[in-house]
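Morning!

This is the sequence you dropped in the shared folder:
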Amino acid sequence: MRRVFALFAALALVATACGDDTVETRIVTETSIVTEVITETSIVTETVVGETITFWSTEKEPRRVEITQGILDDFSAASGIGVNLVITPEDDLPGLMVTNAATGTLPDVVFHPIDLTFGWADQGLLDIDAANAVVESLGPDTFSQGALNLATFEGKAAAVPTDGWGQLLIYRKDLFDAAGLEAPDTFAKIEAAAAELNDPANDFYGIAASNAAGVRFTQQTYEHFALANGCQMVDDAGTVVTDSAECTEALEFYTNLLDKYNAPGIEEVVETRARYFAGKAGMIVWSPFILDEMAGLRDAALPACAECEADIAFLAKNSAIVPAFSGPSGAPAQYGQVSLMGIGSGANVAAAQAFLEYWFTDGYLTWLSVSPEGKFPMRQGTAGNPTEFIDGWALLETGVDRRDTLSNFYSAEVLSTLIAGSSNFDRWGFPQGQGALVTAVYSANIFPDAIRAVLDGSLSVDAAVEETTELVQQELDLLE
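The structure's back. Tokens below.
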């Protein structure tokens, strides 16, 4: 059984990058490598003769580590290339990359969120040409175009999109059908449905969406609406444009929607889910991590609607989704969070590329299986079978306390809609190369705080637009 020895994180990463003939798993915490035997994962040290590369992953749960190690072992057996697996906390990645760049020990391959890609590319920490060559080899058309667009830096894929999720508008199709309502895929239809279904006297509300200050979930939810109305944070020239007519219209719509048709009080992740699960809301804006919970596969978040007593999966069977919707001044868009595989500068390029070729073919469905409800395939298929990985993903088991396939609860139409939405993935700042500004704006909670102030009546929409624009500009000035 593999033992994980206590050392400081930076020193451990240097050691793994040096490479030897042993495939090792090292779990990095904020200050040290955890000292324990990983009994849950049954990982056994193997010896591989030949060259060795280092792979950093942020997937730290024992089951996910075990699955990841299995992919690496299979790749090593097929290629003769060893892989040192280093588990790194996501929050520590920026500092660890800089530290290891200074010592020339960057990982050969690093799994990371899109939030970090552009900053690393700009700092020269990623081998963009090597990653772009992998995309070209696998076929750009086999990837989600929305994810690939987000990953494009100076005309090239800075890293290879591996998985992701998009914010969803989920609605009670049974109630919509009974009321003769159309699918809520525009601002007008969303508001019409919210107004029709809203019944506060009976503790039922048209929509459940985040309205709390100081939380990222409110930012993600609002940004989804803003993008749908053509509102961007900056333009291609890097000018702050959150005071545009599109942004003003989006903020006015969102705050009006929540003021009239959301439950009173503070609502964020737990509260919105609990309301929808109790059968007390006609719509909810949430991430796809809610999908296995709606099916009753997680005891910590079980549906509790009246109909759920007879069928715990009632909400899963009677809900439909709209991944991308549009406002009057925009086109269909969806807030997307994408994870990528980057090749570090100074990497063993040939071995790293061989690893990624394997990852996105023979190892791909195994990787997606660690959390299918939140790992949509960003490579959707192959040239010969364009839906190979989409079809395989739909059959993967998900859940926490019980496991089952999403296809047993959601129709083929719902699942295909989920995947199709990834072609409309968008985010503030990243397409304009302003990833560092995104991080700063998110950290400062500029928009969640302004939304709460409008709902509390301490700011008008116009004043909120002016204030948020000034604050975003201040963050931009600090970065220049």
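Headline: The first strand starts at residue 3 and ends at 4.

More detail when I'm at my desk.
O.
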